[in-house]
Structure formats: C-alpha cells, structure tokens
Design brief:
Blueprint: E1 2-5, H1 15-53, H2 62-111, E2 138-143, E3 146-150, E4 166-172, E5 175-184, E6 189-196, H3 197-233, H4 235-246, H5 265-312, H6 316-349, E7 356-359, H7 360-369, H8 372-378, E8 381-386, E9 390-393, H9 395-413, E10 418-425, E11 430-437, H10 444-447, H11 468-478, E12 482-491, E13 500-510
Parallel strand pairs: 8-10
Antiparallel strand pairs: 1-8, 2-3, 2-6, 4-5, 5-6, 7-9, 10-11, 11-13, 12-13
C-alpha cells in the first residue's frame, strides 16, 4: 500500500510531465524503428522463399510455362514407352519371325497342286524383277531335287542346302537369313521359306519411323489444344485485370470470384481480404481526420480568443488572467492531441498486436509516477495497492489504458479528492484492475455510453474530449478483457460537494498461462 499526497506540496508542476513526455517520445521512436525492422525482415524472408521456389525465368507467361511443362512431360513419357516397345519387340522379333515363316511354309505347301514334279527346274538365265512385297520374304519349292516354284526375290541356291526340316540360320549373299524347311514325304515336296535379318531390321525401323511421325503429329495437336485450353481457363484472370485497370483509385470493393478456376480462387480471396483490410484502414483514416478536425476546431478557436484577449489587455492583471486561461487551453489541446494520436496508433496497429507476458503491477507503478505533479497541483491523494499479477499484454497499449483511466479519475475527483488504484488476482483466475475516484460519479444510464467515442457524460469537467474511455474499451477488447463500472470512493460529509460516492472502472484481464 502506497500513496501520493499532494495537498501541502508546492514542488514545481512540470518536472514529472516533462520526463514522462520525453520517455513517451523515445518509446514511440523505438516502436517505429522496430516496426520498420520487422517489415524489412519479413520482406527479405518473402524474397528468399520466392527465390527458392522459382523454377522458371521471371517474367515468362504462365500459359507458356504450363504448356511447355505438359509437352515435355508427354514427350518424356512417350520416349520411355517407345524404348520399352523397341526393347520388347527386339526380344520377341525372332519368335514372331519364326512363327510367320512356319505359317507361310504350311500355306505354300498346302496350295501346291499335283504334278509339280513334271515342271521344269528353275532357269538361272531367266531373271524376274521382284516386286517390293517379294523383297520382304522368299520361298522355294523343291521337287525331286529341282527348284520348280520360287518367289521372284528368292536366290538361286537352296535356302538351306541340308534340306533338314525346321529352322536354320544361313549366310546368303553375305547376309544372315532365318530359314524354315518343311517336307511333304508323300508327294516328295520340300518347301523352304526364308527372310533376311536386314529385312526384319528395315521393318522395325519403318515401324519406329511411323510411330515417331504419328507421335509428332499427336504432340503438335496436344500442344495446340493445351495452349487453347489454358488460354480459355485464364480468361477470368484477364477479365479481373481489366476490371482493376478500369476502377477508380479508391474503389476497394471485393473482386468477383464466381467464374474463377478453383486454383486461383484462394489467391483472389486473399486479395479481397487484403482489400477489406485496406478499406478498413482508409475508413479509419477518414474517420480520424474528420474526428480530429471536429475536436480541434473548438480548442483552437478558444486559444485564438484567449490570445486576442491577452493582446488587448490594458492592465497587467488582465493580461496575466488571459495568459493563464491560454495556458490551460494549450494543456487541454495537448492532451486532446495526445489522445488523438493514441487513437490513430491503435487504428493503425490493431492487426499487429503482439501480446507478451508482463507484470501489470510494475507498469501501474511507472504510470502513477507521471501523475505526481498533477496530484500535487490539485492537492489530491492517490493510493495504490498492487500485488504481482502476470498477464498477456502489449506494454504500450496497457500504458495508454492506465494513463487514461488514472487521468480520468484525477480530473473527476476534483480538488482535494481521492483516487484509489488496485491490482489483484481474483480467485476466479482473472487479473482485476480497479481505478476509483471520489468525484461526482456517473449515472447508471450513462455507464453504457461513456465508452463511446467523443461521448461526454453530463457534469464532466472542462477539458474532457470523450476519447480516453473509448481508448480504454478498445484496448480491453484487444486483450480479451471485460470492463465494468460502478460507484467509487465515498465522500466525507464535510466535502463541499456533499456526501456521495464517486466512480469506479474495473477491468478484468485473463491470467497469463503458467510457464
């Protein structure tokens, strides 16, 4: 329990206020510098993340990127498939060739008529120009050791001189051949069917060339279709760009998202949220400018009037009285300006409040020291009863809350009044801050309105702006606290204002979690 009693103290009135003002300006400067440092750090981190994730050269079209990636993916998949097919065909080609040779030999033997043994043998001098189809396959039909039936491209010598049934590999004309021999013992016929390895390779090469040509055509068609589809899908983005280009500078209405692809909708939703925040900030700025202009108009007019009265004074007493009123007006204007700046600071920083564990009792002691001089001037008594109470809060905002509560109590308590500040941890687990005075109090019907911005309760002392308690309500809401108001300190029977009870404001903060 401590108290500040200024009833018989005549110390200079401005020393504590100057020290407090200098401290506040220093804190404001440190706060701005810290915010700038945090902003620069976030910007650098964002650039580093973008640099790590960037896989294309900057500035290239998203449409081109997607098309090129899809074409490369399809091309790679097709080449893998082609390699697998060629490998598989190269393994199975010998088996497929053997089967085709056997089938052809059986068909040739079955189609041969009776009496082939009477046909003359092949004349080596007779040259028949083979057609293109005959170059792929050659066959010979032998009867009694003579080649009586043959294909145009068949060689003169036997495909298999041993005439042994089955498959055989032979070198004919310097080229490897696969030969199949089939014998009909009843009729004495031998059929030999052969095919050169070069023909098989040419056939495989032709298949590969045809596949490549077909794949090229398919790839071109796929690229064109992909280009068209992606372009059509990106039309809503182009429409959004045109909408933004045609908008007035201060049009912050949300962008339409109905026709957007699902991949782009989260981005536009985030952009719309940002537009809403910017619009709220612009509205705050407009409201602040309007409120500041409205509230400063009257004090400035009063200051101008007092200055003119001081200039026109004919005696020293009249001049001093006008200067005293002028000084009081300057102090009221300074306090109003400080509250308006606190209001603007809250509006600008309400999205970036960082709550940290702190002891509210230590902060109360520091703030009360700023009011020592004012208490001495008014011959008031400020009592403090505080116990350690930790909570999650913002030091600067809680300082604004305490200064406004104590300043409001000091101004309403009047000359030789009393102000009691208490801080304790309630049994329910809440930190309860109470600021009570012995002033004229507030009627129950006004308790709900005194926290509205620029509202002044009837009977408020001169110099009130109606901003202080609205700041208290805003900060309490930010910290998840609950505000209650009621009767304050009881006045003695010999008080010039008569018996009665003043006004009290209680703020209940959630207790900081353990650890």
């Amino acid at each position: 329990m401590s108290s500040i009693d200024g009833r018989n103290d005549a110390s200079p009135p401005h020393a504590a206020q100057d020290e407090a003002g200098g401290g506040r300006h220093g804190r404001d400067h440190d706060e701005r510098r810290q915010r700038w440092h945090d902003h620069e750090q976030r910007r650098r981190e964002w650039q580093e993340r973008c640099g790590r994730r960037e896989s294309f050269a900057g500035g290239r079209s998203l449409r081109w990127k997607l098309t090129w990636v899809l074409i490369k993916t399809v091309l790679l998949a097709w080449f893998v498939w082609l390699a697998c097919q060629v490998w598989q065909l190269s393994r199975e080609h010998s088996g497929m060739l053997d089967n085709s040779l056997r089938e052809i030999a059986e068909q040739v033997l079955a189609s041969m008529p009776e009496g082939l043994e009477r046909l003359p043998s092949r004349d080596p001098k007779r040259i028949t120009e083979p057609v293109a189809a005959d170059r792929k396959m050659s066959f010979q039909v032998w009867a009694q050791g003579r080649n009586v039936v043959y294909s145009a491209a068949a060689p003169l010598q036997p495909l298999n001189p041993t005439f042994k049934d089955g498959f055989a590999r032979r070198l004919i004309g310097g080229e490897p051949w696969q030969v199949y021999t089939l014998t009909d013992h009843r009729r004495g016929l031998i059929v030999q069917v052969g095919r050169s390895k070069q023909m098989a390779i040419q056939e495989l090469q032709g298949w590969i060339a045809g596949s490549l040509l077909a794949a090229g055509l398919i790839l071109v068609l796929f690229g064109l279709a992909t280009w068209k589809v992606i372009g059509r899908s990106l039309r809503p983005i182009t429409a959004l760009r045109e909408i933004l280009q045609q908008r007035p500078p201060l049009d912050l209405t949300p962008l339409p998202t109905q026709a957007l692809p699902s991949e782009f909708r989260p981005l536009v939703d985030a952009f719309n949220n940002q537009l809403e925040r910017v619009d709220a900030a612009v509205q705050h700025e407009r409201r602040f400018i309007s409120d500041a202009a409205h509230e400063l108009r009257t004090p400035l007019a009063v200051l101008s009037t007092h200055a003119e009265l001081a200039l026109r004074a004919t005696t020293l007493e009249e001049k001093n009285a006008a200067l005293v009123r002028l000084n009081a007006g300057v102090q009221r204007s300074a306090r109003l300006s400080e509250q308006l700046l606190d209001l603007a600071r809250l509006d600008a920083g309400e999205e970036s409040v960082r709550l940290k564990p702190l002891d509210l009792s230590d902060l109360i002691v520091l703030v009360i020291r700023d009011f020592e001089t004012l208490a001495r001037e008014r011959r008031q008594r400020i009592s403090l009863r505080a116990e350690p109470a930790r909570l999650l809060g913002d030091v600067d905002q809680l300082g604004i809350l305490l200064r406004n509560l104590i300043d409001n109590a000091v101004r309403h308590a009047g000359a030789e009044g009393q102000v009691a500040v208490t801080c304790a941890v309630h049994s329910s687990g809440a930190v309860v801050l109470s600021v009570a005075d012995s002033g004229c109090g507030v009627s129950p019907e006004d308790c709900d309105r005194i926290f509205d911005r620029f509202y002044r309760a009837p009977g408020s002392p001169d110099g009130g702006s109606g901003i202080g308690l609205s700041l208290v309500a805003r900060i309490a809401q930010t910290h998840g606290a609950r505000i209650e108001c009621g009767p304050g300190l009881e006045r003695a029977s010999d008080d010039p204002r008569g018996p009665g009870r003043g006004f009290e404001v209680r703020v209940q903060f959630p207790l900081a979690p353990a650890g």
